[in-house]
Design a protein that fits this description.
The complex is a heterodimer of chains A (about 500) and B (about 650). By secondary structure, chain A is an alpha/beta fold. Helices cover about 40% and strands about 10% of the residues of chain A. In chain A, strands 2-8-7-6-5-3-4 form a seven-stranded mixed β-sheet, with helices on both faces. Chain A starts with 13 loop residues before the first helix and ends with a helix. Chain B has about 650 residues and is of the alpha/beta class. Chain B is built from 19 helices and 15 strands. Chain B has helices spanning about 1-10, 90-95, 100, 125-145, 170-190, 205-215, 225-240, 255-270, 280-295, 310-325, 330, 350-360, 380-390, 415-425, 480-485, 520-555, 575-580, 585-605, 635-650, and strands at about 55, 160, 165, 245-250, 305, 340-345, 365-370, 395-400, 425-430, 455-460, 470-475, 560, 570-575, 610-615, 620-625. In chain B, helix 13 (about 380-390) packs parallel to helix 14. Chain B starts with a helix and ends with a helix. The chains are: A alpha/beta (about 500), B alpha/beta (about 650). Chain A: Homodimer. Chain A: This is Cysteine sulfinic acid decarboxylase. Chain A: Its cofactor is pyridoxal 5'-phosphate. Chain A: It comes from Cairina moschata.
Chain lengths: ~500, ~650
């Protein structure tokens, strides 16, 4: 079997590979980094799925292709991908391209390691610790624990599991069947991952008690109190409250102090899903939105959203210092976490996680932070707020634009009422017709590729736009363009 | 670096006069041109708290605000001198004009006055008086500071809460240059050295020492690009070179240039795979790759999703099996239900236990099935365990077979296990995270014979096929949308049903994640580059090298195989000369147990290679050698054995 002279030499051509990589890097800098952020170019190059499938020639075949062909494919991939780093991509809670973070991400990929032991990832084990400590410091904790997770949804699920474990440690072994019916609480505006988490963890979505929010989307503490009582009266055991800082659609912040009071009174774990709003902690001007966050037991915070770190960079932070995370998730695999290593195995932090192999998500944030400093990050946050405020005033001033509500954060929610519907607000079919405006405008903007912004119905409200400007590359001209473009695309509807 | 800096920050920051909307100039000593946020304007009120907004425009004279100090840092002028008192020159603009000064400047809600070039417009009264109050000093300073930037007149400057919105707050040119420089370092320090066996695999430093070497602290102010590039170099120097031909430590190793290119592109495009709208290309790529992987499993159709790791894939499968077994659990939860029991071998990956506890099933409800001496699940034992569970009144629902166990590389007999599952109506999941790649090889795919009978399969191309961390697929035989039914939450803000395209392409609701990385793409590009035959050669080669090593181990004195490997895991003891004559007994094994850790310590401190060791089910510490990288040649295998001999000869 081992015959074959092939084994004498490496099984791949390193020189050719390096050359290819060099060419691809140039392509990447041109297409993705430069052109992808160039206002003169499109945000997206819309193609129907069938058409795009044909253009890309996706099929995987028995034989490989030459480098030039592959480079063309890379160019196509860049061309038909949405340019999320483009200054006019306002579609998601992430956008923009930060060059420092990008360098960190490229380096992460090149080093290709997994964050479980000090042996394998010495630099990143230490770095993760420093980054998490810094994030905790901004939350207001001098000590604690934490871990980077593959996304805010998983951070929320981690928190839920740790809270369950803290309350019922025997559940880990015996399962939730042996526990009473558990109840957890989140506002009706909370992220859908809370529901997904309850299903995944075997708690059940029926046991998520959704607490009413006020008209601005903030949890009403009195309602939380009522829901807790209701759960108790149904025989369920409340254990976990997830407050949201920066809800997905409206950008609302739950009143943490009052929520924390309720949690304290009932002895409940307080988790704060600050995946979106957490970055406001960096701003001395705006961090009051999260006042009381230091009273939480756990916090989920995604720097990949507002800070343009790049997907994914999502931290779960814990106030606990007793090793709860390790006890809750640790499995002590002897092939990875040998106890007789020659260094302090306390640095082998990988057993705290649910995952085994885990990506290095700290380097990109760390490098960005090193580059711009806490101050630079603060400026970005302040600027995003300022952009939104500018738009709010513009929206108020312009005909046909109508705010859904005064934003607390940087989610700008508004309707565009086209000329044909103006003055018809009293008509029976007004809302129904207005609900069709956003999808029509969205289609037009995507076909033109001029920008991207999302829309959604929400509660009883018909489709409205939700605009988010987090990219540090956005300027006032982009904001004006945004409104002008909506007007232009929707004027004849 | 000096030269570089100058070209970035001195010439690079000159804004062409035609760029009317470009931002204020960049200070030469800061990597990016961040503008000072003049906090002294109001604007501490949160948005929307009613009347709190302050949208102010002011007549900027010749210049825009310059970066200034915060958190006690002293502002540095473009010449590099510190300014008196650390005050920001922009401060002169920071005080908002009084209401009167801007009255009549437009609608009350938005007082935007158009700034005009110096000399053409009257200076607002308040600003005038403030300037007067500060006397000539500020004037003078302002002129001094802004001399070289005087020509850049700010038009239409809009200040909101002290934040200028006109220009971007980042200098893209400098940023791009930085990425280029970083790429150069990556190429030189990581990629080009990846093939070089004379380079160290690792540069060992104890945690406390490394903390001191690396300047990890995150500070208030940013660092220069030069410093940042140095930091990148430090990160590289002290990181383990997993692409080194002599890195045998994990179930991943080596470098594939094509997948790396795809990974770089992914990072630059920064997509999230949830909707066709946001990720058209990557969704189609994922669909294609999953289809292809399903073909290799032998299913005619199916479903699948890429996950952040094999552990998560296993959890998905467990939850899916539970959902199939009893869909109401999704809503009702497990409280008060009978015991759900799942079966897996003693040699399975630890993620099974982690999953059982995370999903609320409980670790005691994982029934571990005995394996034979080669680490393979014994089907008769599985049958017994299922019977036992039934007798106990619990509800068996899932069998998890392993194709390629972590330590021994064993493959459970899938066909016989599938028979039992069929008989008892149990979901069969195959954890082929490690072994799945053998499916690509016509020579070795028989190891997974019967896998087509599984209900779900976890397969990580980032291991044997070098797709790069992470690249992990969960494949599901069901084609009725079980995955979606099990996981969907139908978020209206993301999965709108009135989109203008076929929303069945918005597959993100199948996931437990919200944002998700496009991990299929790297595998796709690599596959395009190598073709199926290229991937097959890779697998065949790795297994041939493992075979070679096994033969060498048998030949060499002092080396002892634990067992004949089925796959790429070569497990062996090294018995140093001093132990060779010892009698077999507890003392011998105790002494042997101590050998591997010491050899490991020595190899890491020397940096010559890395391979893993562990105790395992009553067996004392042994080495587990894993060959993956196509860069590895026979010489590296010989080196491995020579090096162990060398490091352990005195033990």
């Amino acid at each position: 079997m081992a015959e074959g002279s092939g084994l004498e030499r490496p099984g791949l051509d390193g020189a050719a590979g390096e050359e290819f990589l060099g060419q691809a890097l140039r392509l990447l800098l041109d297409e993705a980094v430069r052109n992808g952020t160039d206002r003169a170019r499109k945000v997206c190059e819309w193609r129907e799925p069938r058409e795009l499938r044909a253009l890309l020639d996706l099929e995987l075949r028995p034989h490989g292709e030459p480098p030039q062909r592959l480079l063309q494919r890379c160019r196509d991939v860049a061309r038909y991908s949405v340019k999320t780093g483009h200054p006019r991509f306002f579609n998601q809670l992430f956008s923009g391209l930060d060059h420092h973070a990008l360098a960190g991400r490229l380096l992460t990929e090149a080093l290709n390691t997994s964050q479980y032991t000090y042996e394998i990832a010495p630099v990143f084990v230490l770095m993760e610790e420093v980054v998490l400590a810094k994030l905790r410091e901004l939350v207001g904790w001098g000590s604690g624990d934490g871990i980077f997770c593959p996304g805010g949804s998983l951070s929320n699920m981690y928190a839920m599991n740790v809270a369950r474990f803290q309350r019922f440690p025997e559940g880990r072994q015996r399962g939730s069947r042996a526990l009473p019916r558990l109840a957890l609480f989140a506002s009706q505006e909370s992220h859908y991952s809370i529901e997904k988490g309850a299903a995944f963890l075997g708690i059940g979505t029926d046991n998520v008690f959704f607490v009413r929010a006020d008209e601005r989307g903030k949890m009403i503490p009195e309602e939380l109190e009522k829901e807790i009582e209701r759960a108790k009266s149904e025989g369920a055991v409340p254990f976990f409250v997830s407050a949201t800082c920066g809800t997905t659609v409206l950008g609302a912040f739950d009143p943490l102090q009052s929520v924390a009071d309720v949690c304290q009174r009932h002895g409940l774990w307080l988790h704060v899903d600050a995946a979106w709003g957490g970055s406001a902690l960096l701003s001395r001007t705006h961090r009051h939105l999260l006042a009381g966050i230091e009273r939480a037991d756990s916090v989920a915070w995604n720097p990949h959203k507002m800070l343009a770190v790049g997907l994914q960079c999502s931290a779960l932070l814990l106030r606990d210092t007793s090793g709860l995370l390790q006890r809750c998730h640790g499995a002590g695999a002897s092939y990875l976490f040998q106890r007789d290593k020659f260094y302090d195995v306390a640095y082998d932090t990988g057993d705290k996680t649910l995952q085994c192999g885990r990506r290095v998500d700290c380097l990109k944030l760390w490098l960005l932070w090193k580059a711009v400093g806490t101050e630079g990050l603060e400026r970005r946050v302040d600027r995003a707020f300022a952009c939104t405020r500018y738009l709010v005033e513009e929206v108020k001033r312009r005909d046909g634009f109508q705010l859904v509500l005064e934003p607390e954060f940087i989610n700008l929610c508004f309707w565009f009422v086209p000329p044909s519907l103006r003055g018809r607000e009293g008509c029976d079919d007004f809302w129904e017709r207005l609900g069709k405006v956003a999808p029509a405008i969205k289609e037009r903007m995507m076909r033109e590729g001029s920008m991207m912004v999302s829309y959604q119905p929400h509660g009883a409200r018909v489709n409205f736009f939700r605009q988010i400007a987090t990219s540090p590359a956005v300027t006032r001209a982009d904001l004006d363009f945004f409104l002008d473009e909506i007007e232009r695309l929707g004027h004849d509807l | 670096m000096r030269v570089l800096q100058q070209s970035f920050f001195t010439s690079g920051r000159k804004v062409k006069p035609t760029e009317t909307n470009s931002g204020p100039p960049t200070p030469p000593n800061h990597p990016f041109s961040f503008y000072q946020n003049p906090k002294i304007t109001h604007g501490t009120a949160p948005l929307g708290t009613g009347g709190g907004f302050r949208l102010r425009h002011r007549r900027l004279r010749a210049t825009a605000p310059l970066p200034g100090p915060k958190r006690g840092a002293r502002h540095r002028s473009p010449e590099g001198r510190s300014l008196p008192g650390g005050r920001c020159p922009a401060a002169i603009f920071c005080h908002p004009p009084s209401e009167k000064a801007v009255a009549g400047g437009g609608p009350a809600a938005l007082r935007v006055l158009i700034g005009e070039p110096r000399g053409q417009a009257p200076v607002p009264a308040a600003a005038r008086s403030r300037r007067a109050r500060h006397g000539g000093r500020l004037e003078e300073m302002e002129v001094g500071i802004c001399k070289q930037d005087m020509l850049q007149k700010k038009k239409n400057a809009v200040l909101v809460d002290g934040v200028i919105l006109n220009g971007p707050i980042m200098d893209s040119k400098a940023g791009e240059k930085f990425v280029e420089e970083a790429c150069k370092i990556i190429m030189e320090e990581v990629i080009q050295k990846a093939n070089d066996v004379t380079e160290k695999v690792c540069e060992w430093r104890a945690p406390e020492t490394l903390k001191k070497i690396l300047d990890l602290e995150m500070r208030d102010t940013g660092e220069s690009h030069q410093k940042l590039l140095q930091l990148c170099q430090d990160v590289i120097q002290y990181s383990v070179k997993t692409s080194h031909p002599r890195f045998f430590n994990q179930l991943y190793a080596g470098i594939d240039y094509y997948s790396l290119v795809a990974r770089f592109i992914t990072e630059a495009l920064n997509p999230s795979v949830y909707t066709y709208e946001v990720s058209p290309v990557f969704l189609l790529v994922e669909e294609t790759v999953i289809k292809k992987m399903i073909e290799f499993i032998g299913w005619e159709e199916g479903d699948g999703i890429f996950n952040p790791g094999g552990s998560v894939s296993n959890m998905y499968a467990m939850n899916l099996a539970r959902y199939k077994f009893c869909p109401e659990i999704k809503e009702k939860g497990l409280s008060g239900l009978p015991r759900l029991v799942l079966f897996t071998s003693e040699e399975c990956h630890y993620s099974m236990k982690k999953a059982a506890s995370f999903l609320g099933i409980g670790t005691e409800n994982v029934y571990f099935v005995k394996t034979d001496e080669r680490g393979k699940m014994i089907p008769e034992e599985l049958e017994k365990q299922v019977q036992r569970a039934r007798k106990e009144g619990s509800a068996p629902f899932l069998v998890c077979a392993t194709a390629g166990t972590t330590v021994l590389g064993a493959f459970d007999p899938l066909d016989e296990i599938a028979d039992i599952c069929e008989k008892h109506g149990l979901w069969l999941h195959v954890d082929a995270s490690w072994g799945g790649s053998a499916l690509i090889s016509r020579k070795h795919c028989r190891l997974l014979c019967g896998i087509h009978r599984a209900d779900s399969v976890a397969w990580n191309p980032h291991k044997m096929l070098l797709a790069g961390i992470q690249c992990c697929a969960l494949l599901v035989k069901d084609n009725s949308g079980l995955l979606k039914k099990c996981y969907s939450a139908k978020a209206a803000y993301l999965f709108q049903q009135d989109k203008f395209y076929d929303v069945s392409y918005d597959t993100g609701d199948k996931s437990i994640q919200c944002s998700r990385r496009p991990d299929a793409f790297k595998f796709w590009l690599m596959w395009k580059a190598l073709g199926t035959t290229g991937l097959e050669e890779r697998v065949n080669r790795a297994l041939a090298l493992a075979r070679y090593l096994v033969e060498e181990i048998k030949k060499r004195e002092g080396f002892q195989l634990l067992l004949e490997p089925e796959y790429a895991n070569v497990c062996f003891w090294y018995i140093p000369p001093s132990l060779r004559k010892m009698e077999d007994g507890p003392e011998f094994w105790q002494k042997l147990h101590e050998v591997a850790p010491i050899v490991k310590e020595r190899m890491m401190k020397k940096g010559s290679m890395m391979l893993g060791y562990q105790p395992h089910r009553g067996k004392v510490n042994f080495f587990r050698q894993v060959v993956i990288s196509p860069q590895v040649s026979r010489e590296d295998m010989d080196f491995l054995l020579d090096e162990i001999e060398l490091l352990a000869k005195d033990l």
